[in-house]
What does this fold into?
Amino acid sequence: MVIVMRPEASENDVEHVVELVREMGLKEHVIVGSDLTVVAVIGDDRKKEKTKLEQAPNVDRVVPILAPYKMAAKESKAERTRVPINDTCVIGGEAVHVMAGPCSVESEEQIMDAARRCKAAGATALRGGAFKPRTNPYSFQGLGEDGLKLLAAAREETGLAVVTEVLTPTDVDLVARYADCLQVGTRNAQNFKLLEACGQSGKPVLYKRGMSMTISEWLQAAEYILAEGNPNVILCERGIRTFEDHTRNTLSLSVVPEVHYRSHLPIVIDPSQGTGHARLVPDMCKASVAAGADGLIIEVHPDPEHAMTDGGQSITPDALTETMQSLRRVAEAVDRVLGGSDVMDTASV
Amino acid sequence: MVIVMRPEASENDVEHVVELVREMGLKEHVIVGSDLTVVAVIGDDRKKEKTKLEQAPNVDRVVPILAPYKMAAKESKAERTRVPINDTCVIGGEAVHVMAGPCSVESEEQIMDAARRCKAAGATALRGGAFKPRTNPYSFQGLGEDGLKLLAAAREETGLAVVTEVLTPTDVDLVARYADCLQVGTRNAQNFKLLEACGQSGKPVLYKRGMSMTISEWLQAAEYILAEGNPNVILCERGIRTFEDHTRNTLSLSVVPEVHYRSHLPIVIDPSQGTGHARLVPDMCKASVAAGADGLIIEVHPDPEHAMTDGGQSITPDALTETMQSLRRVAEAVDRVLGGSDVMDTASV
Amino acid sequence: MVIVMRPEASENDVEHVVELVREMGLKEHVIVGSDLTVVAVIGDDRKKEKTKLEQAPNVDRVVPILAPYKMAAKESKAERTRVPINDTCVIGGEAVHVMAGPCSVESEEQIMDAARRCKAAGATALRGGAFKPRTNPYSFQGLGEDGLKLLAAAREETGLAVVTEVLTPTDVDLVARYADCLQVGTRNAQNFKLLEACGQSGKPVLYKRGMSMTISEWLQAAEYILAEGNPNVILCERGIRTFEDHTRNTLSLSVVPEVHYRSHLPIVIDPSQGTGHARLVPDMCKASVAAGADGLIIEVHPDPEHAMTDGGQSITPDALTETMQSLRRVAEAVDRVLGGSDVMDTASV
Amino acid sequence: MVIVMRPEASENDVEHVVELVREMGLKEHVIVGSDLTVVAVIGDDRKKEKTKLEQAPNVDRVVPILAPYKMAAKESKAERTRVPINDTCVIGGEAVHVMAGPCSVESEEQIMDAARRCKAAGATALRGGAFKPRTNPYSFQGLGEDGLKLLAAAREETGLAVVTEVLTPTDVDLVARYADCLQVGTRNAQNFKLLEACGQSGKPVLYKRGMSMTISEWLQAAEYILAEGNPNVILCERGIRTFEDHTRNTLSLSVVPEVHYRSHLPIVIDPSQGTGHARLVPDMCKASVAAGADGLIIEVHPDPEHAMTDGGQSITPDALTETMQSLRRVAEAVDRVLGGSDVMDTASV
It folds into this structure.
């Protein structure tokens, strides 16, 4: 960190800061500039409370220098992390995978129909919520364990990997019994107890960015999973909260190259949550792949007009099929391939 | 809700929307305007999935009309809710209460010292974290149950009510055994399982706004607590995430009159989290009370330069004493009184 | 618009609102719902002051229904607008054009070198600022008319169209004498006097979104240009102000399909301003084209380490050449072509 | 500034950065830390382009240390600036002044009525727009010079100082002939040509913060006025653009103590623009004064239901009178007085 003194700071003030720095087990380097003095601090201050130094007399502010995350940082691992959800769906390699399916599991018919058609379109994983975090307490909250069973049945038939959300630490074991990949949603992105529990499960975790988290905060929170010895973290951008009102969230695609610059973890994009409108989803899928995303998670409903949740942002299976055809070309244009291409070719015969 | 059709919508398109509305058990009112047609929907659509209607051909958008919360709405309750934390500290009446104390319970000496001095300054409740949700996994996470015991001991001596955070549903019973009021933090503001558990506890809940929640979302989430039969909800504004960089968050004080306009629930302000800098706290305390807040929750540390958490935003006990003197005058200027004034007069003798 | 009454509104209150609506020359449609009454207003209220109705007793809020822009709306024009900057560079057709060049014109050598190399890489227009709006008054403000002359000289040699910024109405004529396309920057996006002057010039206008404008506000402001009889408006997204700190702005690519949904105007993307970091620019270029953008405007400097302005976000001519090769493939993947491909093929021989 | 190297930076990389720093006429101080190296730069780099250094190999980022403004900084001037608008209305002293009046000047009757009643309520300045920057080109744009004449007539009768907006450099002289104080609105906050023209006029300038400007950007832009030799700058916070939807803007009151901490310039608050709803204005007025604001600018209309602009946020003269009575008490509670108190006492007799 660098501690910036106020212009009016005295030598005593600087001396006092130096003492505080040494008390913290760190070393200092005092630099007297033309307008003011700064104290550069040497040593690993990641685990230290730094803001308290702002309370010392005539300290203007404290500027952190070291990235506050370690295991998620690129420096800690030479090669990119690949997270295998099942044999086919490995996130983080050359192949870009598409996870698709309804927002919620609503019924056997609905989820089986969705699964078959997502599979036929080329998806390699099935998404679908059994436990739903709903803004409104009176909204449909999901089928619970019955929903998980239906997802497992759909996997049985289609071979798709199953990705589904878990809401609370005590449900992690239950969800992990049925799912191939645990999903942590944006509203739980800083529910650290849940992250720890997911870490302990050892399962792959699709970890969505909180809608107002910076990348640094996101990577720090990902360490709650990594620190439990679970390396299988897939980051997922799903849009952030901004003043924009034409979308439910603002999908910030620059996080794709930035995460690849800062971290070894793979990143996928959720253009459904990221826009909130089905009409915008196909173009945002293409943009995501062109930006270098390692995968997509897309809401697909056989009958969006009658969806029980998030109907407005679900595309139809036909729209998915058409989008996948474009995505294949976009992936190739950026020297990637679409995951499960062979599977799909067989399936669509 | 009102369903706005695209200008090019045909009669068939409108007819189809009308059918969908009727399927939902609602009635419609078609209004053919100069430029486009809207379908106004009559009936209680709060529990209905509405966005799916955007998928019908040539629907431009769906505009909700009814507030999506019920029990938190002013209409549901004639008088303002008063939440008694203990005999002295009742939030939501004429008196404006100050809850003060350190960010974290660090040691017996620290919390007892803080408690005595906050009491002497006129606070009626003691805040202090035993379970801390830390952005960084390597930061101090709190003393856990030992911290709760220290808080209870401080209450024993000072008579201050104890407010402390709970992070996960399974800890609610434990925390409720020691605390007078459960705190739900901003990172758990949409951890609905936790809200339900707090609701079931029957204890007063200081419920902080998520840093990117709208007021409507906040009141909806508060219903997770209310719907469990627990009316003792205290809303707490602690700043929102914006582009501003001179503060940790942007403290949005207009929520005070707006919450009073929309809801019967009391609202308190956290100017410490809301600014992140001790130097800004006193003025924001005064502004909060002038805006009509029902209380304040302020981070106070006997030795901020050595605080284990959030040192930068903690004021000293002396600064609290001085601030309280101003607050008493500001409260009177807006026809309120400061809570526990008599207690304090005794204490300060 | 729809006027939503408070639940406690009386018949008199509704009657009063109806009178106000009629005074405005509009008609009303009163709808008594289960929980409250709404007054739907029929007629073109685009030019009416609507918020004043919130002052009538027991009005809760006013919800606009009609889009507030007319000439920019898709409904007003059957086909997409094409804006010819010169013979080669026509924005809004099948071809995706790249405008490239330095942030500022710094010297003859710099601009000629940049122009030649951008041309060789396949750009069809040269960007470069002669009048710079600088946040800091002590920063380099541009070469003024001398810069315009250098741009014209670079056009003379390379055939590239010239795009350059104008800051104030009185400079419009001067800039229009040298430039093929006037640029209005984000800080002037609601400088309506400047928009009017650009409209009167008849020149193509590259009109950047204000960094905190909604799409609706942007299209409304574009009408200041259109309303002067100048149809040659090119919208340009350059990132918005959000809480994100890994980029200078948040590049919101969903505006591309949304603008194409709402308007007939073409839209280009500025990934340089939109990210602020050269390392993110190439991927964001690809994402923009995949999202359906009609063009790109990219900061390119022969020697970014010594750029006089915005060095951090300028890519090198070599990086541009490499990016263009990818862009060609991405454009094809979404059924577009890169503008000026033939020209470039010749040039690169 | 501090230049942070990537962990993998070589000695050569550091050496190269050092050379670039020296080329800029600055000195360096290389600090080799435990995880990475930083280059601390000594010397006044305010006028230097710094981001270009991010282009040097293995530079991670550049962190500015010096505040980029000089004349607006507290360090440059020992005492707080007082801006005299007229004999009575001096902003920045002990007295808190209220500027009140309609959003737009609509007619002689309206402005004279408004002026008389604002005066009677205790305001010391009259606000009112003659040139209106309207989001929508079809909205009422103000009466122009006729409006200025009406404002001058209102001053003649009431003695109130006149504050009114100017939109473009060529209008500065005209507006300055009639007004006591020029207002620069949020949409022109980075219209640097306009700021320069206002600076040259020598008139007091009420300079509103851009709706997405940081405090640092705001103070930098204020220097465009100061650098012309005009010290009479009054900063005005009017709310920022955030995700909040219960208000038109988010009124960020922490800027009051922060501006007083960073600068010698006075700051006033516009709670009308800052909220957009008349019902929130009185409480936000009180909060502003309690936060330490040097004044308020409030939209007041004799008949808000028929206002031509911004009707929803204008309070009535009666509401102003009532608010002023509270404000007087709040001002006293924070050791200030309300400006023009004696005048008002006479007027209200």
